Amino acid sequence: DIQMTQSPSSLSASVGDRVTITCRASQYISNFLNWYQQKPGKAPNLLIYTASSLRSGVPSRFSGSGSGTDFTLTISSLQPEDFGTYYCQQSYTTPSWTFGLGTTVAI
Amino acid sequence: ELQLVESGGGLVQPGGSLRLSCAASGFSVSYDYMSWVRQAPGKGLEWVSVIYSGGSTHYADSVKGRFTISRDNSRNTLSLEMNRLRPEDTALYYCARDLIVGATPQAFDIWGQGTIVTVSS
Predict the structure, then answer these.
(1) Residue A16: how many other CB atoms lie within 10 Å
(2) Of A3, A24, A29, A63, which has fewest CB within 10 angstroms of its CB?
(3) What is the rounded distance in angstroms from the CA atom of residue A64 to the CA atom of residue A20?
(4) Which residue from B minimizes the CA distance to A86?
(5) Does the bond joining B14 to the residue before it have cis omega, within 30 degrees of 0?
(6) B5-25 pLDDT, tens per residue?
C-alpha cells in the first residue's frame, strides 16, 4: 500500500494567517491526490481533487499544488470556520485508496 | 439534494455479524461507484470496499473474505454485510460516492453521516 505522510500533525494559527499543510506519498502518484476537511462529529468534506482542482462551492482561499510524491494544501487567509482536521488521500492505486493521518488546525 | 443516510450500526460480539445500509437520494447508486470508508475512534480514515457501476467489487485486505458489499437498485441503497467481526472493526462507517473525473474514480464527493459499529464482548 502507498503510505501518505502529513505534516505537521497539528498546528495553531490566527485568523488571517497563511497556512500550509504538506503531504508526501511513499511512491509516485502523479496528481492523484485529494484533500478533505473534517469537523468534529461530521463526515469529511472534499475540498481539492487531482491535486489542484477546487471543488465547486469551496472557498477560493483553499488551494492545492504538487505532483509526483510531494503535495501542499494552502489556506491563503485562515478563517474561523476553517478549524478541523485535514486529510490527504491518494487515488493512484485504484481501488485501494489510502489516507494520511490528518492535520488538526486550531484557530 | 444529493444525500446518503446510513443505518444498521450497533454493538455486536466478536465473531458476530451486522448488516449496514445506506440510502441514497438525488442520484442513483446503480450508475455510480459507491464505497464504504471507516474511521476508528480517534483515528484516521480507512477505505473498506467499493462497488462499481458494472457490479465488480473490491475490498481492503483487512476485511476481505469477511465483508460483502452490494446494492439494491430498486431501493437505491448500498449495503455492507459484515461477518466474523473483530474488535478492530470498531469504527464509524461511512458510505460515500466516488467522484468520477474523465471516466476515472478520483475521490469521495458525497458522504453520509456515518453509523457506529462497536465490536466488544
Answers:
(1) 9
(2) A3
(3) 10
(4) B44
(5) no
(6) 999 999 999 999 999 999 999
